[in-house]
Amino acid sequence: GQQVMQIPQYQHVQEGEDFTTYCNSSTTLSNIQWYKQRPGGHPVFLIQLVKSGEVKKQKRLTFQFGEAKKNSSLHITATQTTDVGTYFCAGPLLNGGSQGNLIFGKGTKLSVKP
Amino acid sequence: GAGVSQSPSNKVTEKGKDVELRCDPISGHTALYWYRQSLGQGLEFLIYFQGNSAPDKSGLPSDRFSAERTGGSVSTLTIQRTQQEDSAVYLCASSLAGPVTGELFFGEGSRLTVL
User: Given an 8 Å threshold on Cβ–Cβ distance, is A106 in contact with B58?
Assistant: First the structure.
């Protein structure tokens, strides 16, 4: 079945280092969304990418959508302790030809050592 | 309300009992999702409602799980004859449209503990 895979599962960095998480789908996605979940919190939407090869930036965060629309990445430059949390990618599951539910990757848990 | 509201926030029950979890989505949001998140794990899809369409129940782990959405608004997730492996945080989310155009807004979740 359709899967969304995310690596790495965990990442420990020193404050100031960069961080990247990768998301791969077994099928072409119409769009991909990224969420951040702080410890003890609920997932919060970060961004949605729709176009092939799209790159979007939010301050120190850079999001990319692959040309084939099957992979995506989130890169954080110069991590800060406020970046701690789990980052999830999510893509819509094609169900009977129409957009169905949103499938989440297992997430990358980022810890930042001050 | 301004956000997705879930109740109860915490529920402790005994094995074999039934539980009901409620989700009140953002007004006007046509899409409603239920996910389950075990401790330190990812989000496991359970069920998806979109407008008046038949819900996508493909993620429900067993026939002990069911959900309904009344009047296109409030949703209730029911777990019958709870088991210890049902212990998790149950997250509800709503969206203005399907995932192609809408971000998901999550509630704070209902933490279920089955003793």
Answer: no
| ∠ Cα B25 B31 B36 (to 5°) | 75
Name the residue facing A102 among B40, B104, B107 (closest C-beta): B104
**What whole-number distance in Å separates Cα of residue B87 and Cα of residue A43?**
19
Distances (CA, A) of A1 to A61, A92, A99, B19, B58: 31, 13, 15, 30, 12
Residue of A42, A104, A109 with shortest CB distance to B107:
A42
CB neighbour list of residue B34: distance below 8 Å, 6 or more residues apart: B23, B46, B47, B48, B67, B75, B77, B90, B91, B92
What does the mean pLDDT of chain A come to? 92
Got the DSSP string for B15-44?
A: TT--EEEEEE--TT--EEEEEEE-TT--PE
Share of chain A above pLDDT 90, in %: 80
Distance separating alpha carbons of residues B1 and A97, to the nearest angstrom = 34
Contacts of B27 (CB under 8 A, 6+ apart): B1, B73
Using the predicted structure, report yes or no on whether residue A96 has a pLDDT greater than 60: no
- Which residue shows structure tokens 């819509």? A92
